[in-house]
C-alpha cells in the first residue's frame, strides 16, 4: 500500500475559493511576556513579494516567533502573514488555515480576499493568513529535496513488498529523512509540529492587537484549530472546522480510515464514469477495481509514454487518481488519463494531476508543501517502529482500499517514513476539548475522501460543537458555493447563532 496521503490540498482549496467572553489580556500569556524579543507587530507592506494576485487592500508582513519556545531568546523563525482588511462594520479577524499540513495560508487568503470581497465575510472580518513555521513564505522553510531529487523519487514504484523490496523502500525513507536533517537541521525539525504552530497563532494574535480570534480551518487546519482552542480557549470567539481530522486516532488507524474513504470516493467516481459511453472502467461495478488495475499496474515495469518527456510512472498514476478524487471537477481529467492508458495514446492528464497535487510548476520547480507535510506529520504523533505492526496494517489497508493495493499480501510491508524519523514526536493522540459552549461548528462531508465523515462526527462530540453534514463526494465544502452550508457558517461567524441542530445540506 502507498503511504497515507496528505489531508488537505492547496489546489483543492483554490477550487473551493475560485473556496463572547473576553479572556485575560495579552500580556498575561507567556508569549506576551516576551514581546520585546519576538512577536512584534508586522510592518505591513505590499503583497507583491508574496503573491502574484491579491486584493488591492491586502497587506503583508512578517511576525517573529522563537524556533523553540523553551529557549525564546535563541533562533527565531519569521512567519509570513497576509491581512485583507474588512470593508465594512468590522467584527474582528478571521484566521484561515487551508490544511496540508504544508499548504500556504497566505495564498489561500489572497484568493479569499478577492472571492469574498462583496460578501458578509469580506465586510465584517479582516481575513488573516499565517504561513505556519517552515511552510510557504515563512522562513526558514522546510525544503529537503531538490527538484531533480523529487522527480527521481516519483519514478520509484514503491510496490515491491518482498524483504528486499521493503528494505529498499525503507532506505528511501531514511535517505529523505537524512536530507531533511542535513538541509533543514534537527533543531528546526524538532519544533516544526502543530504544538508549536498553535502557539505561533497566539503570538500573531497578540501582534495584531486582538484579544480574540475567529478561525476557519480546512482539513489539517481543523487539527491546528483544535490545538489552538485547547491551549487558548478564552481567545476563541468563533471557530469553524471543515473536513475534520480526529485528534484521538493514532496514525495507523487514521490512515486505514482515510484509505477506506478514498475507496468510497473511487467507487463514486467509477459509478459516475460508467454512465457515459466508453468509460475506461467499464459498466460492471464488480469489475471497476480490476479494470483500474489492468490500466495502471503495467506502469510498475514500464512507464507510459506521454507528450511530456517524463512519461507516466505508476506512482504518478496513483497520485493523479487520488488528486482527482478530491473534487468531482477533476473527474473528467481522471477519465481522460485512464482513456489514454487504455488506448495507448497520451495519458498526460494523469501526470498533470500528479504535478498539481505535488505542486510542481511548468518549469519543473516544486513548492515545499510535501517536504513540510512529512516533517510536520512525523512529529505530530508517535508511529510504531515494529515491522510486524506495519505488516498487519498492510493486510487491513488492502481490504480498505483495493484500488490502491498492488499485488497480493506478502506478510512484509515497509514502515511508514515517520517510524524512521530522526527527531521524536512532540504530540500524541488525545481528544479535543471545547473552548466553551457555542463557540465551534464542525462541517463534515459524507463522502469526503481525505477526511472521513466520521472524523467530523467524533470531533464535534469531543468539542461539544454543532455539526453540519454535507452530502457529497469532495474534500471540504465551506465557501464552495453551497448556499445551505455557507448561510449557516456565515450566520454563525457574524453572531447570528449556531446552525439548526442536525443540519444536513
Automatic annotation (TrEMBL):
InterPro entries: AB_hydrolase_1 (IPR000073), AB_hydrolase_fold (IPR029058), Serine_prot/Carboxylest_S33 (IPR051601). SUPFAM superfamilies: alpha/beta-Hydrolases. It comes from Mycobacterium deserti. It holds the Pfam family Abhydrolase_1. Keywords: Hydrolase, Signal. Belongs to the peptidase S33 family. The keyword ATP-binding does not apply. This is Alpha/beta hydrolase. One of its GO terms (molecular function) is hydrolase activity. Residues 93-481 form the AB hydrolase-1 domain. Residues 1-28 form the signal peptide.
Amino acid at each position: 500500500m502507498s503511504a497515507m496521503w496528505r489531508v488537505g490540498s492547496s489546489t483543492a482549496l483554490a477550487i473551493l475559493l475560485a473556496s463572547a467572553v473576553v479572556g485575560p489580556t495579552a500580556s498575561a500569556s507567556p508569549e506576551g511576556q516576551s514581546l520585546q524579543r519576538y512577536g512584534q507587530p508586522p510592518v505591513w507592506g505590499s503583497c507583491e513579494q508574496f503573491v502574484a494576485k491579491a486584493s488591492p487592500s491586502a497587506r503583508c508582513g512578517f511576525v517573529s516567533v522563537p524556533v523553540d519556545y523553551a529557549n525564546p531568546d535563541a533562533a527565531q523563525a519569521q512567519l509570513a502573514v497576509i491581512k485583507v482588511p474588512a470593508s465594512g462594520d468590522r467584527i474582528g479577524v478571521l484566521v484561515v488555515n487551508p490544511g496540508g499540513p504544508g499548504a500556504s495560508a497566505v495564498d489561500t487568503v489572497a484568493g479569499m480576499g478577492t472571492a469574498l470581497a462583496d460578501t458578509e465575510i469580506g465586510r465584517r472580518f479582516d481575513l488573516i493568513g499565517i504561513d505556519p513555521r517552515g511552510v510557504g513564505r515563512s522562513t526558514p522553510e522546510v525544503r529537503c529535496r531538490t527538484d531533480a531529487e523529487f522527480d527521481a523519487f516519483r519514478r520509484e514504484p514503491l510496490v515491491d513488498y518482498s524483504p528486499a523490496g521493503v528494505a529498499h523502500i525503507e532506505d528511501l525513507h531514511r535517505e529523505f529523512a537524512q536530507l531533511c536533517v542535513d538541509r533543514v537541521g534537527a533543531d528546526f525539525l524538532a519544533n516544526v509540529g502543530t504544538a508549536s504552530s498553535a502557539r505561533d497563532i497566539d503570538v500573531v494574535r497578540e501582534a495584531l492587537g486582538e484579544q480574540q480570534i475567529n478561525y476557519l480551518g480546512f482539513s489539517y487546519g481543523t487539527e491546528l484549530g483544535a490545538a489552538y482552542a485547547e491551549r487558548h480557549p478564552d481567545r476563541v470567539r468563533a471557530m469553524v472546522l471543515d473536513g475534520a481530522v480526529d485528534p484521538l486516532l493514532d496514525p495507523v488507524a487514521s490512515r486505514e480510515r482515510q484509505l477506506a474513504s478514498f475507496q468510497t470516493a473511487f467507487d463514486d467516481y467509477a459509478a459516475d464514469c460508467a454512465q457515459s459511453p466508453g468509460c475506461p472502467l467499464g459498466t460492471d461495478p464488480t469489475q471497476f477495481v480490476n479494470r483500474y488495475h489492468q490500466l495502471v499496474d503495467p506502469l510498475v515495469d514500464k512507464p507510459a509514454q506521454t507528450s511530456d518527456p517524463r512519461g507516466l510512472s505508476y506512482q504518478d498514476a496513483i497520485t493523479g487518481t487520488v488528486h482527482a478524487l478530491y473534487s468531482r471537477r477533476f473527474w473528467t481529467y481522471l477519465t481522460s488519463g485512464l482513456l489514454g492508458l487504455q488506448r495507448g495514446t497520451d495519458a498526460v492528464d494523469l501526470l498533470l494531476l500528479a504535478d498539481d497535487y505535488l505542486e510542481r510548476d511548468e518549469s519543473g520547480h516544486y513548492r515545499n508543501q510535501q517536504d513540510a507535510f512529512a516533517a510536520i506529520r512525523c512529529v505530530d504523533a508517535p508511529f510504531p517502529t515494529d515491522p510486524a505492526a506495519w505488516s498487519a496494517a498492510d493486510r487491513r489497508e488492502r481490504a480498505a482500499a483495493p484500488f490502491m493495493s498492488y499485488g497480493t499480501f506478502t506478510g512484509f510491508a515497509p514502515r511508514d517514513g515517520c517510524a524512521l524519523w530522526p527527531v521524536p514526536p512532540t504530540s500524541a493522540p488525545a481528544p479535543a476539548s471545547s473552548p466553551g459552549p457555542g463557540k465551534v461548528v464542525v462541517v463534515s462531508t459524507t463522502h469526503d475522501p481525505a477526511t472521513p465523515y466520521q472524523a467530523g462526527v467524533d470531533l464535534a462530540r469531543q468539542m461539544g460543537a454543532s455539526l453540519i453534514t454535507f452530502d457529497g463526494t469532495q474534500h471540504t465544502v465551506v465557501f464552495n458555493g453551497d448556499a445551505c452550508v455557507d448561510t449557516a457558517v456565515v450566520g454563525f461567524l457574524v453572531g447570528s447563532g449556531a446552525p439548526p441542530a442536525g443540519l444536513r445540506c
